[in-house]
Amino acid sequence: MCKNTKRPEEVHARYYPDNWDNKSISSLFIPDATYPRLCGVDFVTTIFNFKRGTAMTTVAVVYHSGYGHTAEVAKAVARGAAGVDGIDTRLVRVEDIEKHWQDLDEADAIVFGAPTYMGSASAPFKAFMDASSKVWFTQGWKDKIAAGFTHSGSQSGDKFNSLVQLFTFAMQHGMVWVGLGLMPGNNSSKGSVNDLNRLGGFGGSMTQSAVDQGAEAIPASDLKTAEELGRRVARVTLQFAGERALATA
Ligand SMILES: Cc1cc2nc3c(=O)[nH]c(=O)nc-3n(C[C@H](O)[C@H](O)[C@H](O)COP(=O)(O)O)c2cc1C
């Protein structure tokens, strides 16, 4: 139960005194039975979403996967994000990007995912990066939340370089990077490959599976780690969206 819960009318009166209908705020989004559970970020985000006419904050996951492994990880990231109340997700394959630029433009957060090929993000993902220069010219993604993940065959496989590439890309777009936020797993005598963040990454989600096996061989701990990234991105995005709504109120 949160502290400092305010009635919707109180928040409305404070931040939006002019032209909103108190009744519709509380009846549409904050029924009496649920509003005591809403506070702080969640509460402000609800108001923000109402103001802009949508009930959802959107996390898009744009990825490339040559052989299906990174696709599974992308689904796990989206699953983690979708598990947070108020979050809608979009999964976009870079092969389909021409139909989905608008989805990315409208998203509140974009998570970038690529397999590590030859020590960096795969060429199709790089093609997407280059194509996004049209957005870069107008800084259309500026201040959106960003995060990244990569999958490889080797334990290291130079995955870090791929994450740095994704991070640098997000910085070029003026985005706000969210890291994994998990302590490293499997790094002590008590650890195991079942630990969350078993590969010990920080900048984003790193996952790995054998090159001679399909996506079903991706360890459950890796998929859970990817879900955690999605969950964190979702929560930070809600927080950011709420703060922005207050800042522009
Ligand atoms: C062209 C190519 C280059 C690769 N380079 C690396 C690499 O540098 N490091 C690594 O650990 N794995 C490397 N791999 C293995 C892939 O990262 C691994 O098979 C991964 O699961 C592929 O993901 P995907 O199925 O989403 O394409 C490479 C695979 C290919 C096809």
Can you describe this structure?
The protein is built from 9 helices and 7 strands. Strands 1, 2, 3, 4, 5, 6 and 7 form a 7-stranded mixed β-sheet that branches. Helices cover 42% and strands 16% of the residues. The longest helix is centred in the last third of the chain and has 28 residues, at 220-247. The two termini are 27 Å apart. A hairpin with a 2-residue loop joins β3 (109-117) and β4. The protein has 2 domains: 8-52, no CATH class; 57-241, Rossmann fold. Residues 1-6 and 12-38 have low confidence and may be disordered. α1 (8-15) crosses α2 (22-29), α3 crosses α9 (220-247) and α4 (69-82) packs across α9 (220-247). With 249 residues, it is α/β, with parallel strands linked by helices. It has helices at residues 8-15, 22-29, 40-51, 69-82, 101-106, 123-131, 133-138, 159-172, 220-247; strands spanning 57-63, 87-93, 109-117, 120-121, 145-152, 176-177, 205-208. The structure holds flavin mononucleotide (FMN). Flavin mononucleotide binds at residues 65-70, 115-119, 151-154, 157-158, 209, 211.
The class by helix and strand makeup works out as alpha/beta
How many helices? 9
Percent in strands: 15-25%
Which ligands accompany this protein?
flavin mononucleotide
Which H/E pattern describes the elements? Answer: HHHEHEHEEHHEHEEH
Separation of the first and last Cα atoms: 27 Å
Mean pLDDT: 86
- Please state the CA-atom Rg, rounded to the nearest Å: 19 Å
CATH architecture level-2 label of the largest domain: 3-Layer(aba) Sandwich
Number of domains: 2
Q: What is the total tally of β strands?
A: 7
Supply the CATH superfamily name of the largest domain: Flavodoxin domain
Globally, the shape reads: globular
CATH class of the largest domain: Alpha Beta
* Fraction of helical residues: 40-55%
What profile does the largest beta sheet have? 7 strands, mixed
CATH T-level fold name of the largest domain: Rossmann fold
Poorly predicted ranges (pLDDT <50, ≥5 residues)?
1-6, 12-38
